[in-house]
Amino acid sequence: MLATGAYLPGDPITNEHLERLAGGLPDDILAGLQVLTRHWIADPTTGEQLETNSEMAGKAARQALELADVDPAEVDLLVLSTASPDYHLPPTVTFVQDALGLRSCAAVELRSGCAGAVEGLDIARLYLERGQYRTAVVIGSEAISPLIVPIFRGQDPKRVRMREKLGIYSFGDGAGAMVLRAEDTDGPGDAGVLGSAIACVGGGRPPGMQVIGGGTFKPIHEQLAAKRLVDLRVDVVESGRFTPFVLTEGMRETVAAAGVAADAIDVCLIPEGNAEYMTDELREAGLLTSEWIALEPRIFENLSLVGATGSAAVPLALDHGWKTGRLKAGELVMLLAIETSKWKYGGWVFRWTAAPVAAQASPSAVAGVR
What we know:
The chain contains 14 helices and 14 strands. It is α/β, with parallel strands linked by helices. It has a single domain (3-367), classed as 3-Layer(aba) Sandwich (Peroxisomal Thiolase, Chain A, domain 1). Helix 3 (53-68) crosses helix 4.
């Protein structure tokens, strides 16, 4: 991995701002959500949309390429994951291709949430390892606020239901990008990707999260009769109950695929929340495994700053870790993303190879917010 890039739209939106618009949440629930600020492409007051998902993705990709000192013309593979595309067709990734000025390149899009960026990394890795392409940009981008703002815009904050407030306070928009390059090396055998694990473990189980509307699950005329054409639905109770089991399986399988002991990993990036909160959940479920005990003090995330950002969560956290100096060249990094949509996980273990960002970028480029 040569570099990362990030883009967060607009100014940070605080919990105090949301309280004025949608009503407040009890302190204990806010502490559980862990989110202090988030960024939205939709103006929380007017609902005006400032930009599109593909525009955010393009800006993150361009910044990552600049920090990697790679000309966009060198990119021969683009992989993008999102659950909130600009359109059903064309794929959002093709608009990113336009933004980078590429007449032709391989362009792959995944319809996924948190696990999607790791799945995208694995797809790019397979193409690069077999020599079909040399330079890839993997992007996770999400625009959730257009589904959230209509819930409370123009409403009396006292009439916004508690279960709706949980989504309002939880989610953020943003995009993150990662530049990968296939290089011939005579270095150690673990200089690249040591192993990966992806799976959906929700076979026969109802979804924990759904974006409903605009698809073909029922006739459009019936969908138009709904209160909202597109609706974000989260099973909060089941998410809290079953997520620890998905996390445990994902962690176990990822470590096994990499062929390393958990205590050999230097940094574990799990963008779902703080380690103390998750430790409590695992303990209550009887799942406090040896892998978790070894990795818990090494967990890094930035949920409090950006909110739950779906496909963008992993690259945004990775970018934040690199630019703040938390990730250092030569360290063994584990990515583990859990997705409640149909209970998926994606795990990756690799050696961090990007040079310190301060040596490559100006302060304005490192900020990556506007």
